[in-house]
Amino acid sequence: MTRKDKRQADELRPVSLVPGYQRHPAGSVLASFGNTRVLCAVSVETGVPRWMKEQNVPGGWITAEYQMLPSSTAQRTEREVTRGKLSGRSAEIQRLVGRSLRAVVDLSKLPGLTLHVDCDVIDADGGTRCASITGASVALQLAAAKLLKDGLITENPIIAQVAAVSVGLIDGKPLLDLCYEEDSAADVDMNIVMTNAGRYVEIQGSGEEATFSDADLKKMLALARRGLEGVFALQSAVAGQAQ
Q1: pLDDT of residue 228
Q2: What are 114-134's pLDDT values in tens digits?
């Protein structure tokens, strides 16, 4: 099949990570996958959640919030705060972002601190959760460097990089990094979250009125792994230059 943007099946959309996009957070990155753009920011708070105090859990915590700005889609989306309730989709995505980041951080090296990671979708064209995780990982590295510099922590808590990408099957053909049009038409779509050590953090996948085989799964995982190699290289370059 011919993709709308003329990409090859195994080709990512143009990916960019702009560090220091905001002045006030400890770390911030504007992450772009094609026309999808997500602002990822890390803010630091002294103190930890009540449950950690009550259970005498040492170290610190990382939590994430995700939202789509009203004008991020073709038709304006009402703010969830206006509706007075977080959508199931947003709740699921922000839990995924939080899990993904905690998987690559030694929380014991963040004593008494909570890192709030905010992912705000500016423009949505598919893969917003993947862009959120990818950008937030770099923002977290920048925040950790600042905490070290300011003497708020004594050791770097970052264990590894983490990034994510979407894959899918359309007409039986595996494709990498689906835009919205492709995602909407996919027989199977997946989101793969992985560390730069090649270990999976999470695999989300389902058939849309379709099924997929072991062979299909292997092809999609291999496609995601190859695509993420370039993303990890970009993350390393951006974080290194910004620190």
Answers
A1: 98
A2: 999 999 999 999 999 999 999
pLDDT in tens, 149-188: 999 999 999 999 999 999 999 999 999 999 999 999 999 9
Is the Cβ–Cβ distance between 228 and 165 less than 8 Å? yes
Q: Quote the tokens at residue 126.
A: 């598919």
- Joined tokens for residue 156: 């770097």
**46: which strand partners?**
113
Q: Which residues contact 115 (CB under 8 A, 6 or more apart)?
A: 26, 42, 43, 44, 45, 60, 61, 62, 63, 140, 143
Q: Measuring CA to CA, which residue among 119, 128, 86, 89 is closest to residue 101? A: 119
> What domains appear along the chain, each with residue ranges and CATH number?
15-242 (3.30.230.70)
User: What's the sign of the alpha-carbon dihedral 182, 126, 139, 96?
Assistant: negative
Structure tokens at 171: 């007409």
Pure H helices in the chain: 50-54, 80-83, 88-102, 128-149, 180-185, 214-242
Neighbours of 217 (CB within 10 A): 17
Alpha carbon distances (Å) from 174 to 8, 26, 79, 223 = 11, 38, 34, 8
Cβ atoms of 157 and 122 within 8 Å: the answer is no
Q: Tell me the whole-structure pTM to 2 decimals.
A: 0.95
pLDDT of residue 26: 97
